[in-house]
Design brief:
- This protein folds into two domains: about 130 residues, MutM-like, N-terminal (N-terminal domain of MutM-like DNA repair proteins); about 120 residues, Helicase, Ruva Protein, domain 3 (Orthogonal Bundle), CATH 1.10.8.
- Helix content is about 25%, strand content about 20%.
- The protein contains six helices and eleven strands.
- It has a five-stranded mixed β-sheet with strand order 2-9-5-4-3. Strands 1-7-8-6 form a four-stranded antiparallel β-sheet.
- Helix 5 crosses helix 6.
- The two termini are about 45 Å apart.
């Protein structure tokens, strides 16, 4: 899904492009992405409304809408493949078009989603409780006043899950998805399956610093590229989707593993696994002599 560095580039450009634009028509190509919390037909609910502020909240894009009744706002969760373009309304529609809003000046805002996993919500203004994950959002990790080492340590001590699951929890930290979680953990030299509560203060401080460093650098790099709105810039990432390639730090072959249904990429040398499994493979366990059988009783052989 688009992560914070992507959205920090896309959202201001959408805000500039759409400021004051009035919607004259709506085309719905993939109804499965729509989530309407107000009554009415999709083709009519947006007509006559004017775009106001566009903002980011965690991995959501919020569009303020003025005019018409009822008073509503639009929230888009792009998820895995969602992306935006602002094109001439006369241009041919792409095959992955999900919803398009025609503007009074002849342009069209297009939400595209080849996987149809994203969601477009239209809801009464302020009713964020109607969107899963929107109302309760964690700390802004690039807010130096709130995201301190002490605050991060305190938060981590409450967790009972793996560190990768923890840092991707948007109710805890507002910014990390799959790609940058891998980058942060590699930078901090922490294995993704390490239990959060097992990390020392020094390791948590290193992780805190890596979160700030990786996201800040990525934000600056994405902005520097000035790519089209619908292009996801990820070619500068160190480990994400680089299974089988050499680690850029030590040269060890990068690996891929599963964490709660998601692929994670890491270096087994730079990020050694420190957990001890409670499961014993008896086929590899050293054999130890058992008690001697009573006289005349045949020793039963164990099956392997």
């Amino acid at each position: 899904m688009p992560e914070r560095p992507d959205l920090e580039y896309v959202v201001p450009r959408l805000a500039d492009a759409l400021a004051g634009a009035v919607i004259t028509a709506t085309r719905v190509r993939k109804p499965v992405v729509l989530r309407l919390a107000v009554e009415g037909k999709p083709e009519e609910l947006w007509t006559g409304r004017r775009f106001g502020a566009v903002s980011r909240r965690a991995h959501f894009v919020l569009f303020a809408l003025a005019g018409g009744a009822p008073d509503v706002e639009m929230v888009v969760a792009p998820m895995l493949a969602g992306r935006f373009t602002v094109d001439d309304a006369g241009e041919r529609s792409p095959g992955d078009l999900a919803v398009a809003w025609t503007l009074s000046d002849g342009r069209e805002l297009r939400y595209r989603d080849s996987e149809q996993m994203g969601k477009v919500y239209l809801l009464p203004r302020g009713r964020w409780d109607q969107v899963p994950g929107l109302q309760h959002v964690g700390v802004d990790v690039l807010d130096a006043q709130r995201f301190t080492r002490e605050a991060f340590r305190t938060l981590a001590r409450t967790r009972r899950d793996q560190v990768r699951v923890f840092i991707m929890d948007k109710s805890a930290l507002d910014s990390l998805g799959n790609a940058y979680a891998d980058e942060v953990l590699w930078h901090a030299r922490i294995h993704p399956k390490t239990m959060a509560r097992a990390l020392s203060d020094d390791e948590l401080d290193a992780l805190h610093g890596s979160i700030v460093h990786v996201l800040s650098d990525a934000r600056d790099e994405v902005a520097r590229r000035q790519a089209p709105l619908d292009e996801k810039v990820r070619d500068f990432l160190k480990v994400r989707n680089r299974h089988g390639e050499p680690c850029p730090r030590c040269g060890t072959t990068l690996r891929c593993a599963g964490v709660h249904g998601h692929d994670t990429f890491f270096c087994p040398q730079c990020q050694p696994e420190t957990r001890r499994s409670s499961i014993v493979d008896w086929r590899k366990a050293p054999s130890t002599p058992g008690p001697a059988a009573p006289p005349g009783v045949r020793q039963k052989r164990s099956r392997r």
